[in-house]
Design brief:
By secondary structure, this protein is of the alpha/beta class. It contains 19 helices and 29 strands. Helix 2 crosses helix 4 and helix 3 crosses helix 8. The N terminus is likely disordered.
Length: 600
């Protein structure tokens, strides 16, 4: 990774090896901050979380200032592998410097700023800078390739893009140059693009100055004292119902949707999750190996800095099990986040028995169902006795259900817990009627968690968010008499691979562009490590031959790596109903049998 060249910036993020000594404190009440229900046994599948703690009516920017007022010198963010550390005072100073620079370059309240890259100090600074400036941060998956990036920037009309130089095998700058050839003639980072007419500013992270882009570090010293002071004054005009963030989630039609969230959505969700985890009572250090572009990293981790004064430690740019384990040890982390795949990788890593994880007491496991043996080993081997499971979606900011820290092992793996405070939930039948407890139906939620809507897509917003503000999850669930919810399946044809949502239609539509492919069907099959893997059945045009390698090479040029099918089978036909409808469930059943995956 790169180092900081600007001396003013370097002085703010100097590395300190002083370690904290947080240990588990078992004297705390395990239920003090847990969601509370009415106490009565349910007969119908409707419940709501009641609380004596009111919702927070504030913005992200104000919360950051509040933390500086109370704990200016406490670590806010630590980037373990990069050796970078920011106190709350330093984070606010850098965020306001960047906010002032962005406004001085012509951005205005409500403009969209894309961020494209892995976990980094620049990502976090940009997150809080856009919040302080009244801009809307647009999270772009760091695995996106050119056409996915172009769609995202166009869909929401991004006026600026902050990008990393590269990530893994993708050279971001050269990809951008192919997308915006006008960069060759653009002074600094001011863009005039034919394909992306809204895009006006390009800002590149890293130490190098490149053609057509501003350098991130340079913007941190570009604004004068008066412009920086104006950012503090701006906070009075920002409202908690203002949109602050757009996150893309794939749709069953194949094109991603821009989930638009407000300050109110994400502030209160982060705060509520933190209370369940007892962050409001204990000094907290969170190890966050999950990506910032996703709600898991950005809301449930980063915002805990300002919601509960937590220190958030990012082990590395992308998940590495060894680095994560050593981060927990060296930074004395009290909480650890991850999808089940990440925990499996840490449990099987040779360094597990070499590190001291005694500081851990809790954490979050989310993204896909957790096998009971994995949960048992997380508790026994990693020591997360109070680990919780969260359920929700990007559209719900993201958490609506969460297990308690004192839940039984069986409850943690068979249910997603109880509904959060200030949130309603119900399970409904095909006609929208609330079902009796114990009966399977669609899970719906309502409350402060519900998104503002999909950006510039009223039709698809109305499909899942009704006029009475109930969000239809598309998940099938069963609620018991105590309000615990068990997710039994998905109405929508979604695959969850290692915590990433993958929609088969998107992959199918891409593969239809292959000149030798006549028909294709994509399904998810079980996998011990990833939860699910992607399987494609392909019918080839008459007289043509194609190999598995050809198909995967074609995919590599078109879609992110996590969407590329692991299993490919060439078939003569597909199982169909008498009316000619392809039966995907039979494809999945046969694929599981052919691949000998019945035991999962």
């Amino acid at each position: 990774m790169w180092g900081f060249r600007n001396s003013r910036f370097s002085s703010l993020v100097s590395w300190s090896r002083t370690r904290t000594g947080f240990q588990r404190d078992h004297t705390r009440s395990l239920t003090a901050s847990a969601p509370k229900l009415s106490g009565q046994k349910l007969t119908l599948s409707y419940t709501h979380g009641v609380s004596d703690q009111p919702l927070l009516g504030t913005t992200v920017g104000r919360l950051l200032q509040d933390r500086v007022d109370t704990h200016p010198d406490r670590d806010a963010a630590v980037f373990y592998k990069d050796g970078q550390r920011l106190s709350f005072q330093q984070l606010l100073a850098l965020a306001d410097q960047l906010a002032a620079a962005l406004l001085s370059l012509g951005l205005e309240k409500g403009d969209r700023v894309g961020i494209w890259g892995p976990n980094s100090v620049e990502w976090v600074i940009t997150q809080f800078a856009t919040a302080r400036a009244g801009l809307i941060l647009v999270n772009i998956n760091p695995m996106y390739l050119q056409h996915e990036l172009e769609f995202a920037l166009m869909k929401v009309g991004c006026k600026a893009l902050v990008a990393a130089p590269s990530f893994k095998q993708v050279d971001y700058y050269h990809l951008l140059f192919d997308l915006i050839p006008e960069m060759a003639a653009c002074p600094d980072g001011k863009i005039h693009s034919h394909r992306l007419p809204h895009l006006k500013l390009l800002i590149m992270m890293g130490k190098d100055k490149v053609r057509g882009a501003f350098r991130f570090d340079d913007l941190l010293v570009a604004a004068g004292p008066q412009e920086v002071r104006a950012i503090a004054d701006l906070q009075d005009s920002l409202q908690f119902d203002d949109p602050i963030n757009i996150q893309f989630t794939s749709g069953t039609t194949g094109s991603p949707k821009g989930v638009t969230l407000s300050h109110h959505n994400i502030v209160n969700n982060s705060y509520s999750v933190g209370r369940v985890l007892d962050y409001d009572n204990r000094e907290t250090r969170i190890c966050c190996p999950v990506p910032l572009y996703h709600c898991f990293g950005m809301v449930l981790a980063s915002l805990q800095m300002v919601c509960h004064g937590a220190t958030v430690v990012y082990p590395s740019a992308a998940f590495d099990p060894a680095v994560t384990l050593h981060t927990v040890q060296d930074e004395r982390c009290t909480s650890l986040y991850g999808v089940p795949t990440m925990f499996i990788d840490m449990l099987t890593h040779m360094d597990l028995d070499k590190v001291n994880l005694s500081s851990l007491y809790t954490g979050i496991m989310a993204g896909s169902p957790c096998p009971i043996e994995v949960m048992r080993r997380v508790i026994d081997k990693i020591g997360m006795q109070e680990v919780t499971v969260c359920y929700g979606s990007t559209e719900t900011s993201p958490v609506t259900f969460q297990t308690r820290r004192d839940c039984s092992l069986e409850k943690r793996v068979s249910t997603v817990g109880q509904v959060h405070n200030h949130v309603e939930a119900k399970v409904v039948g095909e006609n929208g009627e609330v079902l009796p407890v114990g009966v399977t139906g669609e899970v719906c939620t309502r409350g402060y968690t519900s998104m503002l809507g999909y950006w510039d897509d009223h039709e698809r917003t109305a499909e899942c968010l009704t006029q009475d503000r109930w969000f239809h999850t598309g998940d099938q669930g069963v609620m018991d008499e105590d309000g615990y919810c068990h997710i039994v399946g998905r109405l929508k044809d979604m695959i969850i691979r290692g915590g990433e949502n993958v929609y088969p239609v998107e992959i199918e539509q891409m593969l239809y562009h292959h000149p030798k492919v006549m028909e294709v069907q994509v399904v998810g099959v079980p996998d011990e490590r990833m939860g699910e893997e992607i399987c494609a059945w392909i019918q080839v045009n008459q007289g043509e031959t194609v190999t598995e390698t050809e198909i995967k090479d074609f995919c590599k040029e078109k879609i992110a790596r996590f969407k590329i099918p692991r299993y490919i089978k060439f078939v003569e036909s597909f199982p169909m109903t008498v009316t000619g409808k392809i039966q995907k469930f039979k494809i999945r059943e046969q694929a599981i049998k052919d691949l000998a995956l019945e035991h999962y």
